[in-house]
Write a structure and sequence with these properties.
By secondary structure, the chain is of the alpha/beta class. The chain has helices spanning 3-10, 26-41, 60-71, 85-95, 107-116, 163-177, 194-206, 219-227, 238-249, 253-263, 278-288, 360-365, 406-414, 448-458; strands at 15-19, 22-25, 51-55, 75-78, 99-102, 120-123, 143-148, 158-162, 184-187, 210-213, 233-236, 268-271, 293-298, 302-306, 320-321, 326-330, 343-348, 355-356, 373-382, 385-391, 396-399, 402-405, 419-429, 433-442, 470-473, 488-490. The protein folds into three domains: 3-138, Rossmann fold, CATH 3.40.50; 184-391, Rossmann fold, CATH 3.40.50; 396-490, 2-Layer Sandwich (GMP Synthetase, Chain A, domain 3), CATH 3.30.300.
Length: 492
């Protein structure tokens, strides 16, 4: 049986979930999820891989539904609770889900569509108590979940993970990040992505810890919960850390000191899902006393590479391969690159997904003949630590025969005193292939000539055709809103 269920059985009296000011024990969660599994089965012996989509608010009901689907032999398809109906339709139709579970607030959004498509619609908070039944034995090789990619280059693809894949993903980070039954994690992440589902909810409960949920994002609410002193694990994306830093700076000295002292007691703070600006990492360390643990993961692999729990966490680096994960870097000819040279990250391990749902050709394209998953991300290894240069499709600019990292150039630009944020892209050019262009959000006066001269100095150690580095600015009004859609290019 699923190990996460076995954990619940031996921790029945321990608090598993805190949501809406209510605590729920593992035993109650187990009972309610088994009742929901019986409701899903509706007299059948086994869902036998049926896809069950659910649009449920983060909290007790979310976990109850997820566990119920798994125990009934179904495949969990979590939907984004902020997506419009057309986006939901795409997932429902692509997976062929014939059952949709929703929180009450989403009923009216999907009810007409569900009726039109003869989809069984279940409102989770209106399901009556259901007698327990014998549940099927679910083998680890069976499909467990379908999560959808962001679809940056094509339509989103359904990533199929088995129970064995999830177990490998959870075991890997549990060993590397030292999860235990004493962990108390605050979940502020969306639960249709790996970061929230695997790293926060599943890994914490898998190890007998407690997950606390907030109903909606609020800096004040997060700080309030931090100050209670129970939470010791926190995971977020760079934007959230940026917002917490900005909120902390608005507090008085006494409040700042209280929050700083509370954060110092934390066991682990992790950042991921996007590149972590060095400035954010440094400011958070000043605020909390913690060097954020940055890691690298994808929907298809869970987590693959991580800075160490114990040892040096390097700013700008994603660290080293996690337990059970094998990593290599290759060039365009699929040859291993020399140390210090950039290459595409390839991953092998039990953590790697099974397939893209109903897309055998797409699945085959993303794997090498000898079974390596091609991530599409480019990195370099320096002193044993991996450093991401970006997505090969969007973040790697090919200019003058060089492969340049847009992320790397952005990091340098953010260190300029009068730049609040920036985005670097490549624009087509007949002579150079692509030119490096930066759109910047100024926080003060900017002289493009001075800035370009400064950039030439800063980028002296990089293989950038600096003569052709352009800096563009998005004009903003006093309220910080962009006042022009077009960008005026300022040549050096």
């Amino acid at each position: 049986m699923l190990r996460i269920i076995e954990t619940a059985k031996i921790n029945k009296e321990k608090t598993a979930i805190i949501a809406n000011a209510t605590s729920f024990a593992f035993g109650f969660l187990l009972e309610q999820s088994q009742q929901f599994a019986a409701h899903l089965l509706a007299g059948e012996k086994d869902l036998d891989g049926a896809r069950i989509a659910f649009m449920v608010d983060p909290g007790f009901d979310y976990v109850k539904v997820q566990w119920g689907i798994w125990q009934a032999g179904g495949v969990a398809v979590p939907l984004c609770i902020t997506h419009p109906l057309p986006s939901l339709q795409y997932v429902l139709e692509d997976t062929g889900a014939q059952t949709l579970v929703v929180s009450s607030k989403y009923h009216d959004l999907v009810a007409a569509y569900a009726m039109e498509q003869s989809i069984r619609l279940i409102v989770v908070d209106k399901v009556p108590d259901f007698p327990l039944v014998n549940l099927p034995q679910v083998d680890a090789s069976r499909n467990a979940m379908i999560l959808y990619t962001s679809g940056t280059t094509n339509k989103p693809k359904g990533v199929v993970t088995t129970h064995a894949n999830i177990e490998a993903q959870v075991n890997s980070i549990s060993a590397a990040w030292k999860y235990s039954s004493t962990d108390h994690a605050l979940c502020v992440l969306p639960l249709h992505h790996v970061h929230g589902i695997i790293n926060v909810v599943s890994a914490t409960l898998w190890n007998g810890g407690t997950v606390e949920f907030i109903s909606s994002f609020s800096v004040e609410d997060i700080f309030f919960r931090f100050l209670k002193g129970n939470i010791n694990v926190f995971m977020a994306v760079p934007t959230i850390y940026f917002k917490l830093i900005a909120g902390w700076e608005l507090l008085d000295n006494t409040q700042q000191l209280q929050i700083r002292n509370a954060l110092k007691q934390f066991r682990l703070m992790v950042c991921g899902s996007a590149a972590l600006p060095v400035s954010v990492m440094e400011n958070w360390e000043k605020l909390s006393g913690h060097v954020l643990l940055e890691r690298y993961g994808m929907t298809e692999i869970g987590m693959g590479i991580s800075n160490p729990y114990e040892g040096e966490r390097r700013a700008g680096y994603i660290g080293k391969p996690l337990p059970g994960v094998t990593v290599r870097l290759v060039d365009d000819a699929m040859q291993l690159v020399e140390p210090g040279e950039p290459g595409e990250i390839h991953i092998k391990g039990e953590n790697v997904f099974k397939e893209y749902w109903n897309k055998p050709e797409a699945t085959a394209q993303e794997f090498t003949p000898d079974g390596w998953f091609k991530t599409g991300d480019v990195a370099v290894v320096e002193d044993g630590y991996y450093r991401i240069l970006g997505r090969s499709s969007v973040d790697i600019i090919k200019s003058g025969g060089y492969k340049l990292s847009a992320l790397e150039i952005e990091e340098v630009l953010r260190s300029y005193p009068n730049i609040a944020d920036c985005a670097v892209v490549g624009v087509p050019d007949d002579e150079w292939g692509e030119l490096v262009v930066a759109a910047v959000v100024p926080s003060g006066d900017l002289d493009p000539q001075v800035l370009n001269t400064w950039m030439r100095t800063q980028m002296a150690s990089y293989k950038t055709p600096r003569k052709y580095l352009l800096v563009d600015a998005l004009p903003r009004n006093a309220m910080g809103k962009v006042v022009k859609n077009e960008v005026k290019t300022m040549f050096q």
